[in-house]
């Protein structure tokens, strides 16, 4: 599951027993050698799906981590590329990988931007936000976009009920809930709290018009539905 360059089981345990911010600071130098980094296959597929929606000028990667999504912005944006994250360690890695990007340390629930961006993206971060925090997150992204700006992110199809992936995600969330009930500060990371119907409603409440696009390079499921959708939320 992990490369030799990745973290040890002990290091992952220490991270999981830390706060979210400190945990990612500890993991940052080895994060890209874990399966938690957004895959190049997904990044490439999202880039190909976004390209026809442009042109875009400036772009923002929300919760940019080590900067995997900044490469998508560079591919589809002609102007300024920026990333925001609250982990100093993750931003340091992003700065090494993308020296020309504007990187800002801030909480995504309090983004420090006015309406400055044409496109905002985010990859793999939404499990760190409780359902009741999602409206605040979407409202802050909305405020950071210019009129007509786009907030886009991939949302894989849910695991089939009863499948190995379904029980793996269910088990992970259960372990995290037990951990957070017993230890403080909490480490918020849940895989099953970001449901499309709820997310769409919260995006619309924040002022977005929402459409869904199939991420065709990732293929389709046995029933013909997309394996992954791109949520495209436009600011009016």
TrEMBL record:
Tree of life domain: Bacteria
Methyltransferase domain ranges (all copies): 60-149
Gene Ontology terms, MF aspect: methyltransferase activity
Gene Ontology BP terms: methylation
Keyword entries, A-Z: Methyltransferase, Transferase
Enzyme Commission number(s) from the entry: 2.1.-.-
Keyword Chaperone: no
The keyword Transit peptide is assigned to this record: no
InterPro entries in alphabetical order: Methyltransf_25, SAM-dependent_MTases_sf
PANTHER family found in the cross-reference section: TRANS-ACONITATE 2-METHYLTRANSFERASE, TRANS-ACONITATE 2-METHYLTRANSFERASE-RELATED
The name this protein goes by in its record: Class I SAM-dependent methyltransferase
Native source species: Streptomyces bikiniensis
């Amino acid at each position: 599951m992990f490369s030799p360059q990745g973290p040890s089981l002990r290091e992952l345990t220490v991270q999981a027993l830390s706060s979210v911010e400190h945990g990612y600071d500890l993991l940052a130098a080895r994060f890209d050698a874990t399966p938690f980094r957004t895959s190049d296959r997904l990044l490439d597929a999202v880039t190909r799906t976004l390209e026809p929606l442009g042109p875009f000028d400036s772009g923002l990667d929300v919760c940019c981590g080590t900067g995997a999504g900044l490469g998508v912005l560079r591919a589809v944006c002609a102007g300024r590329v920026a990333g925001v994250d609250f982990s100093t360690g993750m931003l340091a890695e992003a700065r090494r990988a993308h020296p020309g990007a504007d990187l800002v340390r801030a909480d995504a629930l309090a983004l420090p931007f006015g309406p400055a961006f044409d496109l905002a993206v985010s990859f793999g971060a939404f499990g760190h936000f409780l359902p009741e925090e999602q409206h605040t997150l979407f409202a802050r992204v909305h405020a950071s976009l210019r009129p007509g700006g786009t907030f886009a992110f991939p949302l894989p199809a849910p695991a089939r009920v009863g499948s190995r992936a379904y029980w793996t995600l269910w088990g992970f969330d259960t372990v995290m809930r037990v951990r957070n009930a017993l230890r403080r500060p909490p480490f918020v990371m849940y895989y099953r709290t970001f449901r499309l119907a709820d997310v769409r409603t919260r995006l619309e409440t924040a002022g977005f018009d929402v459409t869904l696009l199939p991420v065709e390079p990732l293929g389709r499921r046995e029933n013909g539905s997309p394996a992954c959708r791109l949520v495209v939320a436009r600011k009016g």
